[in-house]
Amino acid sequence: MSKRKLDDEENSLEDAEGKDKTKDVVNGVNSVVICDTPPCNRNPKHFSNYSEYELHFISSHNYICNECRKRFPSELFLELHIDENHNPFTKIEQDKGGKIFKCFNYSPTGCTKKCSTPKKRRLHMIDKHGYPKEFRFDIVNRGL
Ligand SMILES: [Zn+2]
Ligand SMILES: [Zn+2]
Ligand SMILES: [Zn+2]
Prior knowledge:
Layout: H1 3-6, H2 11-21, E1 33-35, E2 45-47, H3 50-60, E3 63-64, E4 71-72, H4 75-86, H5 88-95, E5 101-102, E6 114-115, H6 118-129, H7 139-142
Antiparallel strand pairs: 1-2, 3-4, 5-6
One zinc ion binds near residues 37, 45 and 60.
């Protein structure tokens, strides 16, 4: 508010910028935090404060691997992690040249794509599902 006094001349500029930012206001909630952790990234959730976001994160993105205690954002990521890191059968399958790297959006009723290498999966996710290039695709191995 005290800003107004100082930048009176820049008011017009500021207003233009301010309008752009109102895009983040969803359902009248002044969103401060946006959850773009998968699977929320497909339909980002907005939160008005960090404690709300934290509650959401703990209840929705807290899947822990029993083997290595790493944390994953969704049940599917945990499943893929266990499959690709701790499952001896998957390892055998991979040694035989099988496609073991499932699509991050894998579901029996949706995309059932499996790739032979993580690199090919990365391309699939970017190409077919619009994942950003800078997405941490190694989240499956390293966790959050
Ligand atoms: Zn979320
Ligand atoms: Zn693990
Ligand atoms: Zn897919």
